[in-house]
Design brief:
binds fe (ii) ion, 8 helices, Ferritin, 77% helix
Length: 158
């Protein structure tokens, strides 16, 4: 049984990574010329923000204080250069290949969590599911590839 301190540290870490992720996707949006790519990256950034805000009440519940947003955004932007030179199709392929591992991370967080935290954590896990759904649809050339992202954003704003 993992201890609560490990759970809390991981929760804070993942929250901060989503804030960084928002800045990462928004930063990447400037680097792709392919039609629609920057709009899609903006949606991906919004999904990251939604995921972070979904678990923010848990930070309060556990007395966790995230680092300053601007520091987290700056950290996220340091990853932009790594992918800024890719073609859009290569970036999408990277998402399809790399992101499923994040689902395991989020499920691992759920497995450590007190039961009362699970509903909010599932919204966090779900953001990765819809992001991968998007990437797979985009890779297959589906016209409505952003639907999973838009549905998630709409639900998170509701
Ligand atoms: Fe994310």
């Amino acid at each position: 049984m993992p201890d609560l301190e490990t759970y809390r540290a991981t929760l804070l870490d993942y929250f901060e990574e989503e804030i960084g992720g928002e800045a990462y996707f928004h930063g990447l949006a400037e680097h792709f010329d392919e039609p629609g790519a920057s709009e899609k990256l903006a949606l991906l950034g919004e999904v990251e923000r939604c995921a972070a805000e979904a678990v923010r009440p848990l930070l309060q519940r556990h007395g966790l204080n995230p680092r300053d947003e601007s520091a987290l955004a700056a950290e996220g932007k340091t990853y932009v250069a790594r992918h800024a030179g890719l073609a859009w199709s290569a970036f999408v392929a990277h998402m399809v290949e790399r992101y499923p591992a994040y689902i395991d991370d989020f499920l691992g967080l759920e497995a450590m969590a007190p039961p009362e935290d699970l509903a909010m954590l599932r919204v966090l896990t779900e953001h990765e599911v819809v992001t991968i759904d998007f990437a797979r649809l985009e890779e297959s050339g589906a016209a409505d590839s952003t639907r999973p992202l838009r549905d998630y954003i709409a639900a998170c704003r509701a």
